[in-house]
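Handout, section B. The chain below has 349 residues.
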Amino acid sequence: MRVLILYTELAGYVLGNINRYLQSYKDARVLIIHYPVNPEAPFNFNRFERITFIDISKNSRENILKAINEFNPATVLCSGWANTFYLEITKKLPANVKKVVCLDNQWKGSLKQRILVMASPFWLLRMFRYAWVPGEPQRQYALKLGFRKDRVFTGLYPADSALYGAIGKKKLEGKGPYPRTFISIARYIPQKDLPTLWKAFIAANKKTGEAWMLKCFGFGELFESRILDSHIQHLGFKQPGELEQYIKEAGVYVLPSTYEPWGVAVHEMALSALPLVLSDKVGAGSMFLDKSNGFKFEAGNSAELESVLIKIMNMSDDELWAMAAESYRAGLKLTSDDWSETLKTITDD
């Protein structure tokens, strides 16, 4: 049960899922090849037993290939197909190694995607036996690429269900006055479209008596141009442990992205029993959002988002707690145990 993981950007939830797998299967070992941590999301990683990390920026290709050869993996998870070095590694592995491409691309029917579909039998399907994707939008793409239905697995990006599920459970047990606080956890970069959220929130709050706060967590190139308002707090990047208390005190989660193939934070906030407000470009909405636990709006449409925020601001505590409970139930659709079992299914195939 030696698993090689060729990853691009490590995050806390990734290691949480891998650690759950290692807890479940004591004979398993994992080798992770990865790039440096994103400076806009500088997670601190605890070093787990039976996981070896190799930073691609600090090692030569020869040393990495030697380490992989010595590790002798039985399964490889490759993050996408754009990294030529990762594809080179995958090609060099013996034919009996179970090769999995992990992708979060959604099918949009673009010219590039249609060309990839036509080319897939001649390279992608020859290299990879399995595809592992976050949800249904990505599953449709994998099927179009030619992967067999029984070799396409969903649930690639679960949140740390133990951590966030405990937050949601405790929140619902201790009902009181509903927190009049929106929370957004997103990098300050153009595709997250935070300016649309700030403008819509300020307008909606003024029309409803300014009883709500908006707390934003993240950092990035647009941080210096953030909109300042007495009811908006820009709190920068926080480690998951630091975020926990803020999430406990929050009321509603908002993600206004114009491009978001999935969005693990959506699952984290659903498990934390927060109603969701998502743009129609957030992939995770396909699994965790429906009319019972939140609202969807057209990405970039400030007027529509303002209208949604006003609806929420005018809701009673009972209505908001009911939505919170539905979010928690939606979040339980996927857990770290599911991720662990999927990997076990692949390694045992």
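Note. The longest helix spans residues 317-331. Compare this with the example in section A.
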